[in-house]
Amino acid sequence: MPVFQLQLRDGDVEPAKTIDLPDADQARLHAIRYVGEALTVKPERVIGHDLRVEVSTADGLLLFSVIVIGVQSAAAQLDRI
Q1: Which terminus of the chain is more solvent-facing, meaning fewer CB atoms within 10 Å of its CB: N or C?
Q2: How confident is the model at residue 40 (pLDDT cuts 50, 70, 90)?
Q3: Is 1 helix (H, G, I), strand (E, B) or coil?
């Protein structure tokens, strides 16, 4: 089974998580769940910057990233809110 590395970043870099999964599609789904778990624990992680999980091969080749970002609209910055 292929080995993948998941790197969580939100301005800080957490230690990479290594996981065995059948293929890259399963690694992508796992990365999406991983971001969801991180947001459940600390949702403020996406205020002011992005939260991303980068998925790489065991050799460090970046395959894809899952990126979540909270963007404040101009209307949300008005004093009346």
Answers
A1: C
A2: very high
A3: coil
- Count the helix, strand and coil residues of the chain and give each as a percent rounded to the nearest 5: 30, 35, 30
What is the C-alpha end-to-end distance of the chain, expressed in Å? 52
Identify the CA nearest to 6 among candidates 30, 38, 22.
Answer: 30
Contact 62, 47 (CB under 8 A): no
pTM to 2 decimal places = 0.82
**What does the alpha-carbon distance between residue 19 and residue 4 come to, in Å, rounded to a whole number?**
5
Burial class (CB in 10 A: 0-12, 13-18, 19+), 43: exposed
